[in-house]
Structure formats: structure tokens, C-alpha cells
Amino acid sequence: MGTTLTNQNSIAEEIKSRLRSSKACCHSVQNLLSSRLLSKNLNIKIYRTIILPVVLYGCETWSLTLQEERRLRVFENKVLRNIFGPRRDEVMWEWRRLHNEEVNDLYSSPNIVRVIKSRRMRWAGHVACMGEERGVYRVLVWKPEGRRPRCRWVDNIRMALQEVGCGHMDWIGLAQDRDSWRALVSAVMNLQVP
Fold first, then answer.
1. Which residues are CB-neighbours of 12 under 8 A, at least 6 positions away?
2. What is the DSSP string of 86-112?
3. Which of 55, 65, 156, 186 could form a disulfide with 22 if both were Cys (CB 3.0 to 4.6 A apart)?
4. Cα distance from N-terminal residue to C-terminal residue, the chain
5. Residues 155 and 63: beta-carbon distance below 8 Å
6. What is the spatial distance between Cα 164 and Cα 121, in angstroms, rounded to a whole number?
């Protein structure tokens, strides 16, 4: 599947590449997703097992900005609108496409941004439990000199913890207790925030 690296350390190109690949994947199963012969639940399973893994490949290392989160949500809503189809307006009796709120109500699973945040948290807990001699852990706690990027990966972890009320705590210390960390990851996944 590969990843896209840039000299600016920008994740935007990687997300564009992931979305291009997932749109091609969507196009290959278009007949299944728009079929009315298959149930909506089966179409959602097709989305979650075939398309979503293509988008989320390597998402544990992404440091997302709000614009990138929006781009991912737009993609997901587009696919879900295709699955759920149009609705008939009760006043004008005309067909119309679903609004974002209606799509969110019909799709009972956590949205794509929630999934990314929980996977990032799970990976952070895994790395935090590694010993100090491991290279991955050293990269995690390393503080490079020079100009800092706008949004660091660790900042995304802290923001996710802040959403569940643990933003003031030392997250590496929290991750040492695996059971409480799993509970935090689950809370981040199931938080009802748009």
C-alpha cells in the first residue's frame, strides 16, 4: 500500500494519496454499494472491511489538522450517502440527498476521525509501554531543536485525552496501566463529538 513522504513532513500528501486509493476502491465496488438488493448493513460491512482499511492505512502516525479531518469526514459522508441513498422530502415530495446529521444518525458506528483518534491512542499506549532502550520510544520522547511544526503527533494525543477529561495528566504515565489506557481509548472512540 505504501506511504507518501514529503520533505516538509506534511501529512496532507499522504491523506490525498490514501483518499485517491480509497476512491478507486470505492469505484470498484460501486455496483455493490448502490445496489438495493443488498441490505444497508451488508453495504456498511463492505465499506468497513474493504474501503475503510485503505483510507486508514498508517493512520496511527498521522498528525491531523482540522482541515484534514474535514476532508476525511467529507469522503466518509459521500460514501455513506451512496449507501443510504436519497430521501423523499415529506413536504415537497421530491427526492433529496441526505444531510450530514441524517447520515450520522443512520451510521451507528464511530466516524472516521474517531477511529483515527482511537487507533492513534492505542499505538501511543503501545509505544509508551516500551522500554527506554527501544528506538521507537526514544523518537516518541525526543525533542528536536529548531522550529516546531504547527501540530505535533503528541499534541493530537493530548487533545484526544482532553476530550475525555484527562488532558492535564502525564499520558505516558497513564499508558503504563494497560487496563485504564484501554478504557481511555474506548472512551475516545465512542465520544459523541462531531
1. 68
2. -EE-TTT--EEPPPHHHHHHH--SPPH
3. 55
4. 29
5. yes
6. 12
How far, CA to CA in Å, does 7 sit from each of 50, 69, 74, 117?
A: 31, 22, 27, 25
Looking at the DSSP bridge assignments, the partners of residue 87 are 96
Q: Which three cell numbers stand for residue 70?
A: 474535514
- Residue 147 amino acid letter: R
pLDDT at 28: 93
* Close Cβ partners of 111 (under 8 Å, ≥ 6 residues apart): 73, 76, 104
Closest alpha carbon to 194 in 87, 78, 69: 69
- Domain edges within the chain: 12-85, 116-190
Distance CA 107, CA 65 (A): 24
- What are the average pLDDT values for consecutive 10-residue runs of the chain, which has 194 residues? 61 89 92 87 93 93 89 94 84 83 89 93 89 79 67 81 84 88 90 62
pLDDT at 179: 92
Distance, CA of 158 to CA of 180 (rounded, Å): 16
Q: What one-letter code names the amino acid at 91?
A: V
CA distance 55 to 110: 15
- Which residues on adjacent β-strands are paired with residue 88? 95
In which residue are the cell numbers 454499494 written?
33
Angle between helices 178-190 and 112-128 (to 10 degrees): 170
CA 105 to chain centre: 18
